[in-house]
Write a structure and sequence with these properties.
The protein is an alpha/beta fold and 284 residues long. The chain has 6 helices and 15 strands. Bound molecules: NADP nicotinamide-adenine-dinucleotide phosphate.
């Protein structure tokens, strides 16, 4: 996921829509970038941000970082300036060992200018609650975490303050009810979900994704795809070494979630696609 470094920002070639200027620096792009208002008052708008290799893999050697380039990293951090909350699955938190979500002063200032808190809420989805309190985000006394879980347990003691949203149905997390609780209890209107693939699959399956920011990396990775057997609700164990994850994991979606292309940018052969899901899938 990498740190933020201040230097000349990347320039994106705008392929679609054709009404936009041909080239945009990151700052000009950011000025145009908005999350749409939520489709309903009942839950926040959910934007998913993922990177995939050209052959559909979400990881290389168990990490997403090697798939990215500078422009992707800049966009990754830029997107965090937009939402009320950033959400990840527990395994991504364990692997990537997140730091505070918005570190750069100019990004924090941009959020405040936009009427947001300097730091978004950090939401972690976990059934096991097995998270190392030494993960920098959890060890940050200023961090505000919300843990979405079907469990009655708690995290080990952390320096960060932790709230719990406990929504279980038949022992499994009820994600739709959890998202509704984010809106109702915390006033969260927008969530940027950064994966991983299993959380992404659960969100798509629940009809909770409103838009998808997809970076398509010009790399072919191969490696057998670790998958969840159809009908299995429990989260699978860590994928075996050398196995890759598909960009979205979990049970087959039938019918598939339909996407509509909103915009398409290019930088150094990386494609940056922004898709909207079609209601009613995203309307729930
Ligand atoms: N390409 C990308 O854009 C991208 C993005 C993010 C991450 N990644 C990579 O993907 C890997 C991690 O992804 P992953 O798919 O294995 O894991 P993940 O989706 O990050 O997290 C899965 C974990 O989240 C919790 N969880 C997710 N959905 C849940 C649900 N519906 N109910 C209850 N708990 C739920 C469970 O936590 P517990 O285990 O605590 O119960 C589960 O084991 C890492 O290698 C990371 O580097 C890639």
């Amino acid at each position: 996921v990498g740190g933020y470094c201040a230097r000349v920002p990347a320039t994106f070639r705008v392929l679609l829509p054709r009404t936009e200027p041909h080239e945009l620096g990151l700052d000009a792009f950011l000025e145009r970038l908005r999350l749409e208002p939520a489709r309903t008052e009942r839950r926040p708008r959910v934007a998913l941000n993922m990177i995939s290799s050209a052959d559909g893999r979400a990881t290389m050697d168990g990490r997403s970082g090697p798939l990215g380039n500078r422009a992707d990293r800049e966009l990754f951090h830029a997107l965090r300036t937009l939402p009320d909350a950033v959400m990840v699955g527990a395994r991504t938190m364990r692997v990537e060992r997140y730091n505070r979500m918005v570190a750069a002063e100019e990004d924090r200032a941009r959020r405040v200018r936009g009427g947001l808190e300097a730091e978004p809420w950090s939401c972690i989805v976990s059934a096991s609650l097995a998270l190392d309190p030494a993960i920098p985000l959890l060890a940050d006394a200023d961090a505000r975490l919300i843990v979405l879980t079907p469990s009655e347990g708690t995290l080990p003691p952390t320096a960060a303050s932790v709230e719990y949203v406990r929504t279980a149905r038949e022992g499994q997390l009820d994600l739709a009810a959890a998202m509704a609780a984010l809106r109702e209890r915390f006033g969260i209107r927008s969530v940027l979900c950064e994966g991983g693939p299993h959380l992404a699959g659960a969100l798509f399956a629940a009809g909770l994704v409103d838009e998808l920011f997809l970076t398509l990396a010009p790399k072919v990775v191969a490696g057998d795809i670790a998958s969840t057997p159809a009908g299995t609700k429990a989260m699978p164990a860590e994928p075996p070494r050398g196995a890759a994850l598909a960009m979205v994991s979990g049970a087959h979606l039938d019918p598939p979630v339909a996407l509509r292309l909103h915009s398409l940018l290019e930088c150094d052969s990386y494609l940056f696609l922004r898709y909207l899901t079609a209601p009613p899938h995203g309307a729930g």
